[in-house]
């Protein structure tokens, strides 16, 4: 598997060649005003991936966990590059990034009351709280829907507070209180808010918190050792990756400090990553640099596509409070901030987006379920989703892996994003 998993990278260096040769054809289509369906896009990107990775690693003075050496990582990247060169001439089908994966028997459950893209979710016991999200590019939700795993029904619905972001939120829970940090305020590619809130799930009441020092889109967010940690994400323009990392002491839904404290910056910035605390360590997995931005001068902040680099990187913080590099995901993966669950000392991640197609530049969704084994620090691909889908909202209850919402593909042969969904599915996991 290890070999085939790098297939997706295969023409990272073809990009430049391709972009130069077809620059004329693409012409004015450099900025494409369409978030939902991916389209051709702009900037000459080629050396960015490896340069950015190298830069990230050098800059952060990263430490390396035992048995995962920096040399391993560097070698892999070199390997990827070589292969990219070898396959430059080869035609790549639209579905080239799919990894071999076993079929899983998926069962369709009651769909969410509304479709949602870039929403957020938190599971507390048998309840999945599903927040916000785009219904369409021009309409965002301002409420929470709750799914009951015991009855397999959608039940409660309640409003979010005024001023809370509608997408790209950072969320975390201690089992009763749900912290909702920053995010985008409004539809299309509007600006972010730094406002931060806490929901008491027992009383269904909201409270304010000190706002984040600067607003972020889809920052990695987790509770760890009594502090709410927020890092990465995109900066105010929605595109520039943030490296900053802040934390604030919290207890029972209240901030114990007036201000956020600056923590060690994350080695690589950007939004849409899984952020997981497990075995008293904080892990940040996958994500991307760059995102759609508001078209300059557009009164509705119309989204326009920009360069994005999706990555597979995984990093970890432990007692030493220094970032350590973990083995990367089997392929670059982003839009997974609420797409993970912890099961049997492993992290399960469902769906996402990977690097764009090297030839046609279309956005490519991910249809696999990944498992990161926390004992051996290894990845495997454990199955296929019923379709490729990004920003899934996942839960795990009594042996069942659930996912709902997101944006699914155009069909088995076409991994580009299309329909925003509210579907709920489950499959019995046997790890
Ligand atoms: C890590 O390296 C040590 C020493 O080389 C070895 O004994 C151990 O089995 C390795 N662990 C894994 C998980 O590969
Ligand atoms: C979820 O379903 C269980 C089983 O019927 C029920 O006891 C519980 O009250 C439900 N929770 C909510 C919040 O509706
Ligand atoms: C987790 O491990 C337990 C004990 O080995 C096993 O019974 C259970 O089936 C595992 N869960 C899953 C989802 O595989």
UniProtKB/TrEMBL annotation:
Organism: Morella rubra
InterPro entries: Kelch-typ_b-propeller, Kelch_1, Kelch_repeat-containing
Highest taxon of the lineage: Eukaryota
Pfam family, any one: Kelch_KLHDC2_KLHL20_DRC7
Family annotation (PANTHER family): OS08G0128000 PROTEIN, PTHR46773
Protein name, entry field: Kelch repeat-containing protein
